[in-house]
Specification:
single chain, 238 residues, mainly alpha, 13 helices, 78% helix
């Protein structure tokens, strides 16, 4: 984990990513606020919707190099001979990538407080701290799940470009899973609401806490990481 996290911050690209991510989430948030002036749309809902939107870009950029770069440079074989298990390799890389993503993402929560401090007609009374806390919780869980997918895609891809494009497509399929299921010719409304990250973000950012999405993302993350470990183990037999 320390190796991956250090590699991220030793590169100037990491700081560029942080600045661009915060700028884009802030701009998207302000556009949403301007569009919803006069409505009862909560500020927290607009903020977390903006962060989730750009998280689908951040995760592929961070995770594409985790294993694809190791395979390209030929250092994966050296890593496999180190005195660490396959599970430790996967979990270490995953923890480093997730830590970096959270370090980049969580400061975006300041947008809502900056808006409340400098905008007339908006004060801290209108900002629900419970909704912000619930939004941060679901954001962390979704980021953990999406990062695990990015790691597995990087493990299966042959290059960073392929890993980034494939991960971007898979992440959007996950985000739109509820919409996709709702178009099926069956009564799938409850299923769509249960598996849709967009619905979960909307509910949690309004202060509605539900344990079912927590179990969904925790179990989903564990399953993806377990699959990644098995894929890495299979390389030893090739």
């Amino acid at each position: 984990m320390r190796r991956e996290l250090t590699a991220c911050f030793l590169s100037p690209i990491a700081y560029v990513i942080m600045v661009v991510f915060l700028a884009m989430t802030g701009a998207t948030f302000l556009m949403g606020v301007d569009k919803n002036v006069g409505t009862d749309q909560p500020l927290s809902n607009l903020l977390f919707g903006s962060v989730i939107l750009w998280l689908t870009v951040l995760v592929p950029i961070v995770s594409m190099r985790l294993f694809a770069e190791e395979k390209r440079s030929g250092t994966l074989e050296t890593l496999m001979t180190a005195p660490v298990t396959d599970a430790e390799v996967v979990l270490g890389k995953y923890a480093g990538a997730l830590a970096f993503i959270l370090i980049v993402t969580l400061p975006a929560m300041a947008h809502i407080f900056v808006l409340a401090a400098f905008s007339p007609g908006i004060d801290m009374v209108t900002v629900d701290p419970g909704a912000v806390s619930c939004g941060c919780l679901i954001l962390i869980l979704i980021a953990a799940f999406l990062t695990s997918i990015g790691l597995m895609v990087s493990l299966m891809a042959g290059s960073q470009i392929v890993a980034a494009i494939s991960c971007f497509c898979v992440l959007w399929i996950c985000l739109l899973a509820g919409t996709i299921v709702s178009t099926l010719p069956i009564d799938s409304t409850r299923i769509a609401q249960f598996i849709s990250p967009l619905v979960h973000v909307d509910d949690f950012s309004r202060g509605s806490f539900d344990t079912r999405p927590l179990i969904l993302y925790l179990s989903g993350t564990a399953f993806v990481l377990f699959t990644a470990v098995r894929i890495l183990e299979s390389r030893r037999w090739k």
